[in-house]
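User: Can you predict the 3D structure for this chain?
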Amino acid sequence: MNKKNVFAIITLFYSVIICAQDPAVMTINGKPITKSEFEAVYKKNNGKEIKNNPKSVTEYVNLFSLFKSKVFEAESMGLDTLGSFRTELSGYRRQLAAPYLTDKNTNENILTEAYNRMKQEVRASHILIRVEENALPKDTLEGYTRITIIRNATLGKLPSSSEISNYEKILKNSSEVSKLLRGKDSSVYKAKFNTVKNLADYYKVATDKFMDIAPKTSDDPSALENKGDLNYFSALDMVYPFENAAFNTKVGEVSPIIRSKFGYHILKVYDKRESRGEGTAAHIMAKFSKNATEQEKANAKTKILELKEKLKNMSFEEVARQFSDDKQSSDKGGMLQPFKSGRLPKAFEDAFFGLKANGDISEPVMTQYGWHLVKRVDLKTLASFEEMKNELKARVARDSRSQMGRVALIERVKKENNFKENLKSRDELSKVLDSTYLQATWKASRADKLGNKEIFNLGGKSYTQGDFARFLETQITFRSPTDITELMKGIYKTWVDENIVGFEDKLLDAKYPEFRNLLREYRDGILLFDLTDQKVWSKAVKDTTGLKDFYAANKNNYLWGERAEVTTYKCLDAKVAGEVRKLLKLNKSEKDITDAVNKLSQLNVSVENVTYLKGENKDVDANWKQGVAPTDIKSEKDTKILVLVINKLLPKSPKQLNECRGMVTADFQNYLETEWLSYLKKKYIVKVDDAVLGTIK
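Assistant: Here is the predicted structure, written as structure tokens:
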């Protein structure tokens, strides 16, 4: 009996056992739904409150059967065969598999390291030389040579003429420059070469030999404004190699050259301090524009000083609501989102963290956005490791340090599955690798004559010379002259690692039922979304004729009530309100009024134009007549006096489609969904096995 037949018998044997242990709880058009699938989704979606409640199990049958009917409908339409679906599901699977394809102990150490580093903040400046992650060796060499020369210069070792000449040769050989030079474009060549050629000149005029050189040499465009200064940061704020360099470099020193996905970096550490914690601030702002004149800045300062005086008689929150120019925070009494060091302008942060207690208010402080009064609302120190653990896990999973867990996993899988390696068989590939590999013309068939010997074995599965040769062909690209054997060995490690992780990945469905169930949920969820989008959501948007017909048939459901177009003058006091009324009698425009009344103070009057529905504003309702309201109104929110001008009264009328498209579209979607669900219930016949259903608790 051959191996194929043995495998078929084993598969059939286990299928019989699984069916016996996992019977069908229902069929939908004859397709069985297993007890385990129904039970997993049922318990996940209903929680603890359904325990020992047989009625809730029965009720869930209708929801679940309708859900699966939609999935089967999607499959009948071939949505599960589309490339877009397969790509999306594959992406979800990679995300789900990631926690299983790493070593937990290593990850725990990474979490501890990150937490301990979060107790500190580092201030550093950096210089970046961009190099693509998969750059050719000649491009990597150019970037590394340039960053090396720049680093030496920041330390006082300026490049010699021979070093500059050598760099020029390397630069001209790099991919981008050599191509551009052939096309008579020397701009990139000059830009890069001058950063090295002129280093001595940069050095002579530099006060800070690092930060003054950074704008002239760094590929990070922000260096032109900040001289590479990154302000203060902590763990998980930067890519892992950069973070390591920052925390491992002493204050005042320049780091070794480091490589990240962005390229090569060097950084100089200027300070290290204990974490300031997470602050919650409120502020009052008198803003000025980015290109403000000195007079405009002075006006803003005058305003902030006026507002500071008002704090003697009004609360911080009231002043912020009435007068702050930061409209995103003024309605909230000036409250800002919690922040950590390095997130807000330095002057603002220094003012905040300089306050001694919650409730304290700073002196006026200027940033690039304007003048501020800063109030300390709260200041939180670093939470405990246990409290932060879940947050740290999520952040680390998105960080390159998570690869350390992958390395540990590979070693574990090797031991668990009796990894055996024959490097002699690997090295025989050198006999068939030549310069054609560097020229991207090499073919895997060149290795056929080697005999397809085993290179390594994992879990009884053999990985051969032919397998490796085909992988080598997938990695082929134009390369600069290099040691082909060493290149092959580097690619070999990648091949081994990928196969080991892939080996473990293929076992996840069998080893972890929770993984298998969750993946199925994702699969069905994607199909359900795509199908509903086709039948309901997108159809309601794209079917413009159907939408118009639906609106025409139901337009009386979308009515405007009676409305009034109102201008509200918010006056500082009754005297200002009197001035406004005099100008209104003279038929002065809104701009003329504000210019005249605010001549002495910008705080005298502000204007708001709003269209109100009847019943929405009691003051407007009380003056439901076109023209200026006869009496002043005292604001309920603050101490201001309101002068209302009813510009126009609008009668009750149907909304135009463009005025209620969102509501009409939502109702049209509901209509389409109702019709579609009726169709599904007729098409898909559900038969429930009550005996099996009764075993679900």
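Residues 1-19 have pLDDT under 50 and may be disordered. Residues 172 and 178 are 5 Å apart (CA to CA).
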